[in-house]
Structures are given as C-alpha cells and as structure tokens.
Amino acid sequence: MFFNKTARRNFIKTGLSLSGVALGVGAKARTTAAETSASPRSEFDVMAFGAKGDGATLDTEAINRAIAASATAGGGTVRFPPGNYLSYSIHLKSNVHICLSPGATIIAAGSPTTESNQAYDPAEPNSWDKYQDFGHSHWHNSLIWGEGIQNVSIFGSGLIWGKGLSHGEGDTVLPEGVGNKAVSLKNCHNVTLRDLSILHGGHFGILATGVDNFTIDNVLIDTNRDGIDIDCCRNVRISNCSVNSPWDDGICLKSSYGLGWARFTEHVAITNCYVTGGYEEGTLLNGTYKPFSSDSKVSRTGRIKFGTESNGGFRNITISNCVIDNCRGMALESVDGALLEDVSISNITMRDIVDVPFFIRLGSRMRGPEGVPVGEIRRINISNILVSNCASRQASIITGIPGHYIEDLKLSNILVVHRGGGSREDAAVEPAESENAYPEPNRFGRMPGHAFYIRHVKNIDMRDVQVRYMSEDVRPGLVLEDVAGADFAHIKIQHSTGIPTFVLRNVADFNLYECWPLADVHLKKVKEQAL
Questions:
Q1: Cβ-based burial of 443 (10 A; exposed 0-12, middle 13-18, buried ≥19)
Q2: In the chain, what percentage of residues exceed pLDDT 90?
Q3: pLDDT (tens digit, 9 = 90+) per residue, 229-280?
Q4: Distance in angstroms (rounded) separating the CA atoms of residues 340 and 338
Q5: Are 249 and 309 within 8 A, CB to CB?
Q6: How far apart are CA 12 and CA 15, in angstroms?
C-alpha cells in the first residue's frame, strides 16, 4: 500500500491508533489482540506484536510476526513508530510495505550470543560462489532480506543502522550467524525503497540481485563499504540519492554469476544523484560533512561504477545529472566476458577526483565458468562533463587488450582541469597490458599522456573537449596506440613548449579538424607520429 505525501503525513500523525489497538494496552495484551483478530487490516504496528523499540531488547521475533501477519492478511503496511528496534534478520514478504516513521531506527544487532539464542540467518548454499566475492554469493545473512517476493517497499524517513554488521573481506567466509548486508534482495520484482536513510551498511547498504522493476528514490546512504549494488537486475530507477562510501563504491552496477547463470543488468537509469568518498562516516547523514584529514589513508573510493563482476553484461543504461565529489571517477569495466553496450553518460560534474575522470576497461580476468569468450564494450556516449581539481598521475584511460577492441565511443563537450606535474620520465612510460589483472586505474601506474590514454580502440569520436593543467605537465596530451578510426574536432589540450598534443602509434584512419594551432589532417596509417 503506497501513500501520497498528504496521506503519509496524516498516517504518521494518527500514531499507534492506526493499528486498531489502544495506546494504553500492555504489550502482552496488544500481542494477543493483534494475533487473534479475525478482521482483515491493512496496517500492522510492530509494537502491537511485542516490539519494545528501546534499543536494548531484541525485537527480531516481534518484527517478523508483524510482517507474517500482514502477508497472511493478503498484504498491508507494517509500521515502525519512533523508537530503536534492535534486530537480527528481518524477513520481507510479498505485498508487505515497511513504513519507518520519523524517529524510527532499525539497528543491526551485534555478534550473536548464546544468551540471546538469536543470530543472523545463515548464508544459504550457493554452488556458484567461487565466481564472486562471498558477499555477492549470499543474501540471507543480512539485516533485512527478501527472496522470490513481489510488490514490496520500504519507505519513510526513518533509519536503518547496520551497527552490528560485518564489512566482509573478499572471498573470506563469515562465521555462521554474522550478517554483512543492510538490505538484500534476490529474484524479486516490483520493489521500491524510498525516503529512508542507511548508516554503516556493512559490505552492502543495498544489494539487489535478479530484481526487476526496482525503484530507489531519495535514499541517503552513509556507509563503510558499497552503497548500492545492482546485480543482474532489469528496469531499475535510481534517483535523487546521496551516497558517502569512502572505502568502496557508491553506486555500482554488477553482472555476476551469483544466480548460477549469466544475466544482464539492463534498462537502468541513474539520475540526480550525489556520490562521494570524502567524508567521515555518518557526517553526510548529520549534515556536518566532516572531511578526512590530509594524511588519512582512506581510499575515498565513492564513484559510480560498472563491474568488477561482469559475467552477464550491461546494456541500455543512462547516467545523468549526477554530482561526483572527492572520490574516484567513473569506471566502466568488462573483464569476465560481459557485453557492455548502449550506455549514455551526460551532465556530470566532478570535483577533487583522486584518480581518473573516466576508466573504460575491456580485459580478460575471466572469473567465471570456463569456455566463455572475452567480452565486448561498444556504443558508449559521454557528453557534457565538467571535471576540476583532478589528480594527474594518470589520464582518463580507455583500453582494451590485444585482439579485443573497445568500439564506437563518442565523447563531447568535456572540460577537465587537473593538477599537472607530469615529467618527461612519465611521458616515456609504456603501460603494461595487464590483461588478466583486477581492473583498477592505479594498477596501471603513471600514464604517458596527461589528458587521455587510448589503446586497442576502434571508432572513437571526440569533439569539443578541453583539458588543462594547474601546474606544468610535460607529457603529451593524448597518446593513441593500436587505434583504428579516430576523429577529433575542436580539441584544446594544453601543452608545454615543444611537447606534442598527440602521440600516435599504430593508428589508422586518423582525422583532425579545427584543432588550432594544429592543421587539419587525415592519416591513413601511421606507425609512429607526433602532432
């Protein structure tokens, strides 16, 4: 059951009376009345099922009773009044909507104890868990989870606090009873998360795998690892969200083998979102925006990313009107056999980027079943981008591997201002192919060009692109290696005296138009040339 704004305000104002239970009735009496009532109801108050909301009593069983009662009645809204609800695994069910009232907080309980006789649900078996990290292979070991359900929502301005969740560690198997995700969904459809906040979400604030018709709107996440992971999902809308994730990715599209087959993530729109990795955990939520100290070793990852898990593929995806701040730039990666195609990225501003504005990587890590061919990346359109105060160790990196090319890439209306400082020694670097390595820009080391490094690419079109540096950089602007079909128009790349704008190695069908002071040129094929 969904409410418009007026209805929701009235709903909250009426308080506990909506449950049909008098405020003065004791917890035991309320539980009995709720569980024995024969009349169907659409609202179910967790307090009426025995929840204390005092932050000390485990409310797991009461919460799950309320959800089960709502499902048995054919569906309805399970409401959390203001309070602190300590809990282990909460089981979502079809046609049940969770309302977190203002002042309501669901708190993930800590490590299980023998005294409580409760724990997070065990990680369910998965025959395919060797192809992705432990966290991506299991869903039940979560604070809130649902599998195979439909017509579900979590809404309201309350908080989900993953206080007792583990952040996980790669392939390391967590002990039974330990949880590592705030909200986890598998093989669901028609799901909405709206207006809530998540603090300290564990390995994932939100993990959705095989979820179709999925809306995430106006959600605020301040967390210790990934904010939102969308894996093997279809028809997804992420809008108006803010994510602070200093130690991992902010909004991440995946296409893992966790379901036991390679499934596309497709028909996705990400818009009007803010991602950052620059603030101490919790300070985005409380509005203080406390930055890390300059000597902090925090990676400030943040960012919007495709991959690393990339077995099934990504297609028909738009990212627009987003703000990226104090974190890594955007990454598009296919390294496990995925087809990544038909992606449009537009109207993005980036400030204080700690590595590269754009990292587009086709590789052959091939973490998946044997016999799968190397993937493909094609038809990518990137436009209307502003980047300021970007790190300069590397340029934007666009690279396939020998024999496997990124194809049909268009970049337009882009302005990048980076810090500069590249040396002649950097200009002489020959980056390793690193075909099978984990795809991360910092693993490539310094780049020989300060604006773009482009390798193993077919058909790249770059127009109205300007790159400047804040301190002198004596590297060439763009370095192209093994590129066929390259059109550049209205390109302005700052360069030091005597330093070329372009370095071409094994480039065919190269065209340059109106890039003053360079003359227009068509080069059919060159082994090595500087312009």
A1: exposed
A2: 88
A3: 999 999 999 999 999 999 999 999 999 999 999 999 999 999 999 999 999 9
A4: 6
A5: no
A6: 5
